[in-house]
Amino acid sequence: MFNFEKLDAWQKAIDFGCLIYESTQQFPVEERFGITNQLRRAAVSISSNLAEGSSRSSRADNARFVEIATGSLFEVVSQSHIARRQGYLADDCFRQIYRSSEELSRMLSGLRKYLTTA
């Protein structure tokens, strides 16, 4: 097992990525290269950046990748608002994504603080 796989934030990010994939499965076909792709790429980027950051030799470098992961999470939140307004995401699905985003954001913030203060 790799070190990053032990991180609660990485495990939550994997779950979040799966949630986004499931939530976008019914998006219109014409959005396959639009918002569907954008949401999925941003969601996958979260866990990917946590994994990549764990390979860095300094805590500061690792913290920078946590920041990038957080930026990708915020992209998903923004894009989810658009998807909801376009009628692609039902309100209950949007709320589930939003709640998961808030939880993951708190985890990433805690991880970043740990890396920059310890």
Write a brief structural summary.
This protein is mostly helical.
Structure, described:
By secondary structure, the protein is mainly α. The chain has a single domain, classed as 23S rRNA-intervening sequence (de novo design (two linked rop proteins)), CATH 1.20.1440.60. It is 77% helix and 0% strand. It has 4 helices and no strands. It has helices at 8-24, 35-54, 59-85, 91-117. Helix 1 (8-24) packs antiparallel against helix 2 (35-54) and helix 2 (35-54) runs antiparallel to helix 3 (59-85). The longest helix is centred in the middle third of the chain and has 27 residues, at 59-85. It is elongated and about 45 Å long.
Q: Specify the helix fraction band.
A: over 70%
The average pLDDT value, as a whole number, equals 97
Number of helices: 4
Spatial shape: elongated
What keyword list fits this structure?
118 residues, mainly alpha, de novo design (two linked rop proteins), 77% helix, 0% strand
Strand and helix map with partners:
Blueprint: H1 8-24, H2 35-54, H3 59-85, H4 91-117
